[in-house]
């Protein structure tokens, strides 16, 4: 049997107002000068200003780095590194969605290394070039329930020279402490609650469907989907419901823990289309979900049977799961086609070629050829469910 390498998350503090413990947690970890990495719109909010004030009151020498975009670039990470070094910081506190947490993790990895950022791209054993003793600790506080970057060991950073996204990886990029505080997510508007929540569902669902052997990740994925079924509609209709917000944060962390097992064609196409059309990643996964399920249906019989029973769906097996995802999308006002997002048939051959080569494609239940990606793309573009 091949040797398998399994990873599990980190210290997680979860609950209402858990972020009020931040200064204490820093003190317990001997952190004195953390760099706060959070995007500009969040830095101005009452909640984040309150957290920073509490850190000052806890005698922490905090400064804030916010000079990065929704798709952070290598130059922006370099700018954060200068900020980290000039402020003589000893840790990163990353607060926000995937972009803030990915930027913070990349700064913490690279700031004190001898090699620049791209030397740590997730290729072969590049990560071994890093001196682990120079990696700064990261405390992550997600403000969306979707990417799960807070429990991940990588960052996605845009290379603006070559216009592509690169994955920066090191096992020690995993934040040492995660704080899941639902009060930080209550201001997320319904359409973003829907899109990020569907990203969390796509992580759990693709991980569950991926054929690699990882029963622990599979168990996490199926329970993650149960939480999303119960709580995403509530978080969408009543954003102030702290129980629903808490359960969605947990389901999001579960999805990112589970997808070490593999992702699939949803993410392969979503990565390609996201880079080309600058569309929301979770929204793309949400639109693509039923089309990808249909493309894989003949390989999912037993798993869909189990999933439909576990989720207590109205109908058994594949059809039950498909109907549930379609109904959930409708409830969350997710468009049914890529055309409704402004995607066109232009460059469809290039989109298919890039998707088949995307890293996520290898986790799909079956290998889909370039022609199959082309057909899948066209089904999703025009709203044809290939039953
Ligand atoms: Fe995703």
TrEMBL record:
<keyword id="KW-0560">Oxidoreductase</keyword>
<dbReference type="Pfam" id="PF00465">
    <property type="entry name" value="Fe-ADH"/>
</dbReference>
<keyword id="KW-0520">NAD</keyword>
<dbReference type="InterPro" id="IPR001670">
    <property type="entry name" value="ADH_Fe/GldA"/>
</dbReference>
<dbReference type="InterPro" id="IPR018211">
    <property type="entry name" value="ADH_Fe_CS"/>
</dbReference>
<feature type="domain" description="Fe-containing alcohol dehydrogenase-like C-terminal">
    <location>
        <begin position="193"/>
        <end position="380"/>
    </location>
</feature>
<dbReference type="GO" id="GO:0004022">
    <property type="term" value="F:alcohol dehydrogenase (NAD+) activity"/>
</dbReference>
<comment type="similarity">
    <text>Belongs to the iron-containing alcohol dehydrogenase family.</text>
</comment>
<feature type="domain" description="Alcohol dehydrogenase iron-type/glycerol dehydrogenase GldA">
    <location>
        <begin position="9"/>
        <end position="182"/>
    </location>
</feature>
<dbReference type="Pfam" id="PF25137">
    <property type="entry name" value="ADH_Fe_C"/>
</dbReference>
<dbReference type="GO" id="GO:0046872">
    <property type="term" value="F:metal ion binding"/>
</dbReference>
<protein>
    <submittedName>
        <fullName>Methanol dehydrogenase</fullName>
    </submittedName>
</protein>
<dbReference type="InterPro" id="IPR056798">
    <property type="entry name" value="ADH_Fe_C"/>
</dbReference>
<dbReference type="InterPro" id="IPR039697">
    <property type="entry name" value="Alcohol_dehydrogenase_Fe"/>
</dbReference>
